[in-house]
Amino acid sequence: MKVRHHNKRKRLRFIPLIAGVYGLILGLGLTVIGIADLAESVAGISPGGMGVVRCIVGFALVSFGLYGIWDGIRDLVKPQRDAGWIQTNQFILTDAEGRRSSYVSREVLREQLIALTKKEEDADISLQILPPVWIQGVGRLIQISYLYGEFPRLVAFFESTDGGYTIRQKEADLSLAEVFMEQFLIGSPDFSYWEEGTMTVHPGHTEGGAGRYLRIFGESWQDEHRFFSARDLELAVEGLSGGKYKCVELGLKGASFRIFSDEEEKEIIIMQIYFEEESGFRSLIKKGTMTQVKFWLVKIFHEGLREVIAAW
Question: What is the pLDDT of residue 259?
Fold first, then answer.
C-alpha cells in the first residue's frame, strides 16, 4: 500500500532566503551610497539627483530582502496549524470491548491498538464514518476495522448499489494499521494495493438470492453457486483439506466467510468471518480441523451465525 507521508517538519526555504539576503545587502549598500551622495550635495560637492534615486531603489531592495528572509524562515518562527486534523466528518470508534465513542484522535487510536495486543484471543476495533464517503474507483466507504490476532489485517467495508457491502482487506501489523487509520481520519486513505476481495455481505438475506453464494477457487479456476445445501459446504471443506481447492468464499445469512487451509499446518482450516451488528461490522478468525469446520458451517447453515459464535 502506498503510504502518504504528510511532511509537517519546520524547515528553511532556501531560495527566498538567499534572494532576500542578497536583496537586503544590495539595498543597504545602495542606501548608504545614496545617503553619501545627498551629504555631498548638501555640501555643494556634487549634484544630489542620483543620491535620491539610489536611496529609493535601496529602500525598495531592503524591503524586498526583508520579505524574502521572512518567507525563508517563516516555517521556523510561525506556529503551524495542523489543518489536516480538522474533522469534517464524524467518526465512531468501537473498541475491543464493543464500546462506542465519538471522541477519536491519534492518541485514542494508538491506545486502542496497544490494548489489542493485551487480549488473549483475537480482537478488533473499528472506525465508522458518518456520512459515508465516496472513494474514487471503489465506492462509498462506510467503515474500516482492524482485526488483531495470528493473521492481523485491515478490512474496509464499501456500500454496493444492490444494498450489500463489498469488502477489501490488507495484511497489516500494528504500525501499518496505525498509519492507515490516521490517514483515514485526515481524509487521505489509499486503497491502491488492497486485496480486492470478491466477498460481499448482504444483511438479512436468508434464502437464495443476491446475498447467498458459494465460490470455490482452484489453481486457475473458480466456480460459483447461488443455490447449495449443507452437504455442498461439507464437500467444499473436504476439498480444501485434500488440497483440491485453494480457497472457499461463502455468503450466508448476513455474513461473509473466507475459508482456506493453514499454510504451515495443512490439517488446520482457517475461517475469516465478517458480519454486521448494531454497532457496525465485526470480523473474527476461527481455526479448526476439517471435522470441526464442517460441523460449524452446517450448524451456521441451519441455525445462523450468531447462535453458533455465542457458544465459541
Answer: 92
Tell me if 134 sits within 8 A of 146, measured CB to CB. Answer: no
- Mean of pLDDT over the chain: 77
The single-letter DSSP state of residue 278 is T
What is the tens place of the pLDDT at every residue in 1-33?
333 333 444 566 778 788 888 888 988 888 888
Three-state DSSP at 296 gives helix
CA pair distance 114, 174, nearest whole angstrom: 8
268 CB-side CA count, 13 A: 10
Q: Is 46 helix (H, G, I), strand (E, B) or coil?
A: coil
Residue 146 is classified by DSSP as E
The reported pTM is 0.45
Using CA atoms, how far apart are residues 125 and 309, in angstroms rounded to an integer? 18
pLDDT for position 11: 63
Burial degree of 189 (CB within 10 A; 0-12, 13-18, 19+): buried
E strands present in 39-177: 90-94, 100-101, 123-135, 139-148, 153-159, 165-171
pLDDT of residue 238: 92
Specify whether the CB–CB gap between 27 and 60 falls below 8 A. yes
Neighbours of 202 (CB within 10 A): 23
List, for the chain, all residue ranges whose pLDDT scores fall below the cut of 50: 1-9, 79-87, 198, 201-210
Q: 233 with 301: CB under 8 angstroms?
A: yes
Phi, psi dihedral angles at 278 (to 5 degrees): -60, -30
Measured distance between the N- and C-terminal CA atoms of the chain, rounded to whole angstroms: 34
**296 and 284 Cβ atoms separated by less than 8 Å:** no
C-alpha grid cell for residue 89?
A: 466528518
Q: Which amino acid is at 300?
A: I
